[in-house]
Amino acid sequence: MGLETKPVSTLHETTSYNVEDFPVPTGREEEWRFTPLSRLKGLHNGTAAGSGAVAVDVDAAPEVTVETVSRDDARLGRAYVPADRVSAQAYASFEKATVITVPRATAASRPTVVNVRGAGGGAAYGHILVTLEPMAEAVLVLDHRGTAVYADNVEFVVGDGAILKVVSLQDWDDDAVHVSHHHAALGRDATFRSFAVTLGGDLVRLSPSVSYTAPGGDADLTGLYFVDAGQHLEHRLLVDHTVPNCRSNVTYKGALQGDGAHAVWIGDVIIRAEAEGTDTYELNRNLILTDGARADSVPNLEILTGEVAGAGHASASGRIDDEHLFYLQARGIPHEEARRLVVHGFFAQLLERIEVPEIRERVLAAVEAELAR
Amino acid sequence: MSTLEIRDLHVAVGDKEILRGVDLTVRSGQTHAIMGPNGSGKSTLAYAIAGHPKYTITSGEVLLDGEDLLGMTVDERARAGLFLAMQYPVEVPGVSVSNFLRSAITAVRGEAPKLREFAKELKSGMDALSIDPAFAQRNTNEGFSGGEKKRHEILQLELLKPKIAILDETDSGLDVDALRVVSEGINRFRAHEDTGVLLITHYTRILRYVTPDFVHVFAGGRVVEEGGPELAEKLEAEGYEAYTKASA
């Protein structure tokens, strides 16, 4: 097969640091068609007034270096090039970036917590770079709270043999708008574990992506979301297998309840012609608890090589199984309690994967609170 | 002393009438066997009394100690003292046996058992039914074999101590060893609790271990013959043919 006829992916299109390289979305584009643009507060078309206040405060493990740098720091933007207009807008507009570095062959002794606090006002932009030097190990928590109109990019550079575990909590107030890209670039034999929990905000659009720079990279992307009346919570995954013998697994589960609750999950996985021996699986499940809630779930698996170790996807959205409720109720358990047990059960396996016990407790309590609404 | 009274019960699934007037009274201390061919409506009777949403009661009544069971929700019926051991126990993903049983006991007894006492009670219940203690941490019925599911149903029976227990084909799919363990559980329960048992079965096999006081033959959605344990012997010898022909 000649170079001219080499198959190319259609999933991963323009990337650029320049906002003008991306036309203003109209809502008809594949990548924007699920997002209610009118609720983005102008983040997508340059009309957002940039007067908002979002504070980034890091409580770091002692082995970890934290710097606040200006936007011309040469380390920024090397692992990730913005992939849509809002991401490019964020890249063009942030003033200070947070740079977190875990030195070579160092295991951080406790989780590093990045508190992102919105204090209202207009739009705000951010940038975070997390670098694990070769053989380093760390757990990182990104904790988003308060209210904001916030667009940001987070780069994770996971060096050769390094292990990074990230929990990202989107626990915003009801009126917040958050559009975020999280990109992980994995070195040789690097391990990346990401756990996204999205609960609060009027509109959250989180786009986690993974690229591999050398063979042996291993990425698990897990997500849990609970969508209430009127909320739009969107997760857009992209795993781009460009090198041989890497692994990825995507598991996202969400529950929806209330009028106008809208969940969107897009799972794009590309296995390029060079990426022989790739092993990948992606799964999305939605549990629809009431009428008036809607889940859109679109897995896209694009395989451009014949030599894969494994590739699959699954997507299912449905209501609580009446047989489950009947069985529990037939043992005297009241309907509401039975429903609570079933929803817990739906999330149970995922919750066990959260590395930080305090975060696990907090997520569990948040799910309880959502169910009690 | 408890009584379950079923009076002229008619039940439909969609437009199809399955039960055509069932009358039956079960008192505590009694064991009634309902026997009948496949499709005669035995399981419909069990699920309709328990309140499964698939079944519509078109007429008749079911009273537990004079209280109208049919006016209660599924969980209210269970808390009133009714128990249904299911033919096909449901797998509930992510809900551990231990968590499930503790929730059920809390609901039925009206207060949460102390953690230590619950653990003890659960362990002795599982031991008696030869259930591996590791099952307490497994998801409810998930990946259980047929026999394990039935033992788990009987474990619930012994823990929840209902006034009236309906056992729907608890014997089906069991090998001889499992049948003996399960039957011993039922007999233990019958001996210790002042309870009534309605045992639904296709085969006479379990009746060698659990002796009924009354046998009712079900065909075409109603009771067509009643008698003592000797009726089961007759069915063993002659089969259901006479009844299925008559009701057709």
From TrEMBL, chain A:
Q: Which GO terms describe its biological process?
A: iron-sulfur cluster assembly
Q: What is this protein called?
A: Fe-S cluster assembly protein SufD
Q: Where is the SUF system FeS cluster assembly SufBD core domain?
A: 121-346
Its family?
Belongs to the iron-sulfur cluster assembly SufBD family.
Q: Which organism is it from?
A: Microbispora oryzae
From TrEMBL, chain B:
Concerning Gene3D superfamilies, the annotation shows: P-loop containing nucleotide triphosphate hydrolases
Q: Does the keyword Zinc-finger belong to this entry?
A: no
Q: Any idea which UniProt keywords this protein has?
A: ATP-binding, Nucleotide-binding
Q: Where is the ABC transporter domain?
A: 4-245
Q: Which NCBIfam families match?
A: sufC
Instruction: Note the PANTHER family from the entry.
Output: ABC TRANSPORTER I FAMILY MEMBER 6, CHLOROPLASTIC
Question: Would you identify the family this protein belongs to, as annotated?
Answer: Belongs to the ABC transporter superfamily. Ycf16 family.
**Protein name (Swiss-Prot/TrEMBL):** Fe-S cluster assembly ATPase SufC
Q: Which organism is it from?
A: Microbispora oryzae
